[in-house]
Specification:
The protein has 173 residues and is an alpha/beta fold. It has 7 helices and 6 strands. Helix content is 39%, strand content 19%. Strand 5 and strand 6 form a beta hairpin. A 6-stranded mixed beta sheet has the order 2-1-3-6-5-4, with helices on both faces. It has a single domain, classed as Molybdenum Cofactor Biosythetic Enzyme, Chain A.
Amino acid sequence: MRIGILTVSDRASRGVYEDLSGPAIRACLSEMLACEWQAHCMLIPDEQDQIEATLKAMCDDEDCCLVVTTGGTGPAKRDVTPEATEAVCEKLLPGFGELMRAVSLKSVPTAILSRQTAGIRGNSLIVNLPGKPTAIRECLLAVMPAIPYCIDLIGGPRLETNEAVVKAFRPKV
C-alpha cells in the first residue's frame, strides 16, 4: 500500500531551509499505522499547476490510496494547495478541514486562517495538513480515526491503525 506525502513550499524546494513537515508526516504515519505501507514523498514549490499535476500522478500513476499534503494552506497569495486539491478531486470532504481547524484553535487563534480541505480522486483520499510539525501531529490524530473507513468506502486497501496511538472507527455491520 502506497501513501503519498507532498510538501508544498517555495523555500524548502529551493533549499533555503530543510523540509521538516514531510518527514514529520512520515513519522506520524509510521506511529499511527499498524499495516505495512510505502511512502512516496515529493517536495515542490507553491505552483498550482505543479501541485495539481503531482496530486494526479500520486493518485492515478503511483496508486497512493492516501495523499497527505503539507504547506500552502494559509491566506498568503502563493498559498494555493486547497485550490489545487479542489481542482483535482471529484468529491470534497469539508469535515476534515473543519475538524482540523477546531482542534488547532485550541492551541492557536490563527487557526482560523487555515484553509485545509480534503477530497476524493478515484480510489484516493487527499488530505491537506498545516505546515508546522506540531500542528501536523495534532491534526492527523484528529482525522485519522475516519481515514481508514473513508478509504474502505472508496475502494482502497484496508488501513489498520496502531490502537495504542489512535483507533480507526469502522461502523459495526
